[in-house]
Amino acid sequence: MALRALLIRKKIDAERRRLDACRARDADFSKREKELEKAINELGDDATDEERTAVESEVDALNEEKRANDEEKTKIQDAIDKLQETLDAEEDVQPADDPDGATPPDPDNTTPAGRKKGVNIMKRYAEMSYAERKAFCEIENVRKFIADVRNIRAVTGTEVIIPEEVLPLLKDTINRYSKLRSVVNLKQIGGKARVPVLGTIPEAVWTEQGGKINELALSFTQIDIDGYKVAGFIPVSNWILEDNDVDLLGEIIDAIGQAIGYALDKAIVFGDGEKKPEGIVKNLDEGNKITIPAASTGAKFFKDFLIASGKAKANYAPNNRKIWLMNETTLTAVKAEALTFNASGAIVADVNNVMPVIGGEIITLDFIKDNIIIGGYASMYLLGERKGAAIAQSKEVKFIEDETVIKGTARYDGKVLKKEAFVAIGINGATFEAEELKPQPDFAEDTANMG
What we know:
This protein is of the alpha+beta class. 38% of the residues lie in helices and 17% in strands. The chain has nine helices and 13 strands. The protein has helices spanning 3-42, 49-92, 130-137, 140-151, 167-177, 238-241, 245-270, 298-309, 328-343, and strands at residues 159-161, 185-188, 193-198, 220-225, 228-237, 289-291, 322-326, 361-364, 372-377, 381-385, 390-393, 403-416, 422-426. Strand 7 (322-326), helix 9 and strand 8 (361-364) form a beta-alpha-beta unit. Helix 1 (3-42) packs antiparallel against helix 2 (49-92), helix 5 (167-177) packs across helix 7 and helix 8 (298-309) crosses helix 9.
């Protein structure tokens, strides 16, 4: 791959992430509009000038934020379109890898790299039009990949490597189903890696102007990152394999993305380090497990939560982005407290996405138990991602069911960089017994490797 094309792709990726962030804010605007509509309807004839002015100010502020966000989306999309045009032009002139230095012909209206012109492989597969999907599936490498997947029904022991064109789509689907992969400190590793971590910064020593300089003790620790396999096989009905290429590829990508993403999130939170990453919970300090009594409600609840959240230290975090992990039941309980808080006249952030008063993104994960909230600084969790995602055939275990079994694999490892960056908070009086900080349900059992 040409270096300039690689740089352009990196820029496109960055712009798309910015665009996703703008689109995410649209949901917040919609919620705030409903809240303001309710507030306007509640304004009675006896409302004071201050109350009316406050509502008008909120409306003006919201409209201004929406306008700015729309302008930003338009600006980012224009930048993406221009970068994509530049990338297409760059790829059109790139010679194929040839030991003799000759440029091969361009058969079937493809670029030298074998990609169909006009197909944007960085777009999510699900967002492509039918015509774009069809064109994507006609790329030489992708067409061969689909044919190989079909052929493995008749041949045992084969492995199909996912081509370069498909990997961005597969990773994007994993990112869609893994809620944590995009917020933690993600690093690409080619093998076992060692990450140096600086210890606590020492205090310099005051002395006379002409005095000797004191030695400062500065320590480093090493964190080893390996690559554990997260994998599984899925049975696919033969009628799907025999259907058109577009449906086949979508089925494979979607199923693998869901399975791997779910297991990855669970490992980031609860992993025990046994053939999987070490999770946040395994590295929690006992002093960072706090219980908020059931009697603490309304404003008192958020005051206690704010104090408890302060146990998570941001000393080493490259950014102050907090996350709060909980299940839907717990989120509902937090919403209930926020409603009580709103009734007292305070204005809080959107509970659906941001923790009121404290701040930080709320991420719902159904495998966390009720009334348990795990949070902290996401950048202090290091996730190492290995390359080499592959689809391969299993034995014909579903022959009678008229299904073909296909497996998908990926490799990750992860560790907490500084355990003081995270905290667990139990609400409604929930305490932290041994069972409370385990996933529900537990990790899928490795029955295939039991002796």
